[in-house]
Every structure is written in structure tokens, then in C-alpha cells.
Specification:
Elements (H helix, E strand, L loop, with lengths): L19 H9 L7 H38 L6 H38 L17 H8 L2 H27 L1 H5 L6 H41 L4 H12 L2 H22 L5 E4 L4 E6 L9 E7 L1 H12 L3 E4 L1 H10 L11 H17 L1
Parallel strand pairs: 1-4
Antiparallel strand pairs: 1-2, 2-3
Helix pairs in contact: 2-3, 2-7, 5-7
Length: about 350
């Protein structure tokens, strides 16, 4: 008893790099190499840079709002209209104060995404799919190598962030111990500067880690979209067409071209031969042609077919080996005879016309 096995099942290991078509399809689905750490790092960097340069403006606005509240609203009657007006005023002032930092965060988020994947609109990535809420697949995602890598990355980031912030606090320890001797304004300025320095330090650290993470995400993405050799072959067939079908189409085209050429042979004036290896059929009409025209040509088997068609239709054949070879090499079907062969072809046609007049 024998069992038949399809050997292609043993070659389905995905070892080939993704083709440009496969990469484009993955990109259209929203499957791209992207690190969320890059977004976090760039947003933190832009935010704390903003606080360093524009933070004094925000603090000033908050002080103005607090001062206005204690001077104008402290003795105001608590009526429904007054409370509504106060809330509206507070919301407007908070919006004016927070709008710049929110704008910076939005621009940083857009920039970080564009830096990684460029411009990408992939509506398929946000489509509702039942497989996304499959508990079995969710369990596999939680307990997987990728989840372990993410956990180790998180622990490493927490450790390094703690080291950076602890280092900044240690460097400014003397100033912090003297904080009780400072005025409120000086103390707040010191605390604000420390927060900005720690934020920038953490942001720079996360940018370094995010570059490593992006390299890993790119490697992992390239690995996930790898293709098997059979996948590459199937894609080639879809894009270029089945080679067998293409060969049949070409064969059919050759047959049709051969048929059209053979239909022109009976209209020729003469067929110049080699005598059996080459055959070139010429036609000339002095009323509408400047030079003789090549209506058919061929070598070996096709040459024999041209000669047989010519004989069956009483078309003269003239043996001239050098001329037949030169015409075959220098001109194509539908071309006029080259100028350097005019004299030789003219002699052949004159000979043919003399024989036909005698007949």
C-alpha cells in the first residue's frame, strides 16, 4: 500500500523576504513597523521644551486667573446666573491657557507617526473584526514571546527612568534641602526647573530606547510578513500571468502572424532564396511604391513553406544566396528594401519581368 504526498507542503516555511507587492498590501491594511515608544518620547520632549520656554506664560495666566477669582468672585452672590457665568469664564481662561500645550502635543504626535510610517490612511485597520475579541487569541497574545519582550522593555524603562530622575534629584539635593528658606516664587521656580530638567532627561533617554525599539519592531514586522517560496511563485503568477498560458498566447500570436504572412506571399512578385535556408518574398508596384517591399521572410522550415506557397501560386523563385541573407538580416516584414541593396534587387526584378513577358 502506497501513500501519495504533495511535496509542496514541506516547503511552506516562510523564508523569503516580502515582495514590494506584499509590503504594499500589508501597508494598506495598516500593518507597518511602528513603535509607540517613539510617540511617547517625542511628545515628552516637545512638551517639556515648551514648558521651558513658554511655561512662565502659563504660570502667569494661572496666577492672573487665581487673583481675579479672589478679588472679583469672592463676594459674588451664589445665584444660578452668577455660577454659570463663573464656570464659563473659568473654562474660557483654562482653554486659552492650555491650548498652546495641547497644540504642541497634537503636532508632536502627528510628527512622530509621520516620522515612522509617513502618510498612511488605512481604514481597514479600524474595521470591526470578531477575531479581535476572540478570547483564545487574546490569551495567546497575553502569554506570548512578544508579551514577554514588552514586559521586559517596560521594566527596563521604569528602572532607567528612576535612575535618571534620582540622579537629577541627587544633583540638586542641596537646593532641595534649602527649599524652606526660599520664598514661594523662588521655590516654585526651583521645582518647575527640576521638573523640566527631569522631563527632558527622561525624554532623551526614551528617544534612545525608542530607536532600539523601532529597530526591533521593524525586524519583527519584516519577519511576520515573510513569504514562502510557494507564496512568491503564486504572486508572480497572479501579477505576470501563468507561464503556460502566456506561452500558449505567444504561440497563438505567432501562428496568426504566420498565417497573415503566408496570405501575402501570393501577392508577391518574386521570392529570393538561399535556396532552402532563407526565403524573402518581394512585392513592387511602381505606381505607389518608392522601393520594393518585403511581404514575407523566413528561415529553414518557414522558408520552405514560403517557397511552396509561391510555387503553388506561380510566383517565381530566384536563387541568390548573398542577397537573400542580406535582405533577411537588414530588413523586417513590411520594410522597404535597404538602399544599398537596390541595385541587386532591381536586377532580380528585371530578370523576373523579362521571363514573365516571354511567357
Amino acid at each position: 500500500m502506497y501513500l501519495s504526498l504533495d511535496l509542496q507542503y514541506f516547503a511552506q516555511e516562510k523564508t523569503e523576504k516580502a515582495t514590494p507587492k506584499k509590503k504594499k498590501e500589508s501597508r494598506d491594511k495598516g500593518q507597518v513597523a511602528k513603535s509607540s515608544d517613539v510617540n511617547t518620547a517625542i511628545i515628552l520632549l516637545f512638551s517639556f521644551l515648551f514648558f521651558m520656554f513658554i511655561g512662565s506664560y502659563m504660570v502667569e495666566q494661572l496666577f492672573i486667573m487665581a487673583q481675579f477669582t479672589f478679588t472679583e468672585y469672592l463676594l459674588t452672590d451664589l445665584s444660578e446666573e452668577n455660577v454659570g457665568a463663573m464656570l464659563t469664564e473659568f473654562l474660557v481662561q483654562m482653554a486659552i491657557t492650555m491650548a498652546p500645550i495641547m497644540l504642541v502635543i497634537i503636532l508632536a504626535a502627528i510628527f512622530s507617526n509621520y516620522l515612522q510610517v509617513g502618510f498612511l490612511f488605512a481604514p481597514e485597520a479600524i474595521k470591526m473584526k470578531l477575531e479581535k475579541i476572540d478570547p483564545i487569541k487574546g490569551f495567546k497574545r497575553i502569554f506570548s514571546i512578544r508579551a514577554l519582550v514588552e514586559f521586559l522593555k517596560s521594566m527596563l524603562k521604569i528602572t532607567l527612568v528612576g535612575i535618571v530622575t534620582g540622579g537629577v534629584l541627587w544633583f540638586f539635593l542641596e537646593d532641595l534641602l534649602r527649599l524652606g528658606l526660599y520664598s514661594i516664587e523662588e521655590g516654585m521656580s526651583l521645582i518647575g526647573n527640576l521638573i523640566a530638567i527631569m522631563g527632558l532627561g527622561v525624554a532623551l533617554l526614551l528617544i534612545f530606547l525608542s530607536i532600539l525599539d523601532y529597530m526591533y519592531q521593524k525586524y519583527d514586522h519584516e519577519k511576520n510578513i515573510k513569504m514562502s517560496k510557494q507564496d512568491v511563485k503564486d504572486e508572480y503568477k497572479k501579477s505576470e500571468g501563468d507561464p503556460l498560458i502566456k506561452s500558449k498566447i505567444k504561440e497563438k500570436q505567432r501562428q496568426m502572424a504566420m498565417s497573415r504572412m503566408m496570405q501575402e506571399v501570393p501577392k508577391a512578385d518574386v521570392v529570393i532564396t538561399n535556396p532552402t535556408h532563407y526565403a524573402i518574398a518581394l512585392k513592387y508596384d511602381d505606381s505607389n511604391m518608392d522601393a520594393p517591399l518585403i511581404v514575407a521572410k523566413g528561415v529553414d522550415f518557414i522558408a520552405l513553406k514560403v517557397i511552396n506557397v509561391a510555387k503553388n501560386n506561380d510566383i517565381m523563385t530566384v536563387e541568390n544566396r548573398p542577397l537573400a541573407r542580406a535582405l533577411y538580416d537588414q530588413a523586417e516584414i513590411g520594410d522597404q528594401v535597404p538602399e544599398d541593396l537596390f541595385k541587386a534587387v532591381a536586377e532580380v526584378l528585371a530578370y523576373v519581368y523579362r521571363i514573365q513577358r516571354k511567357i
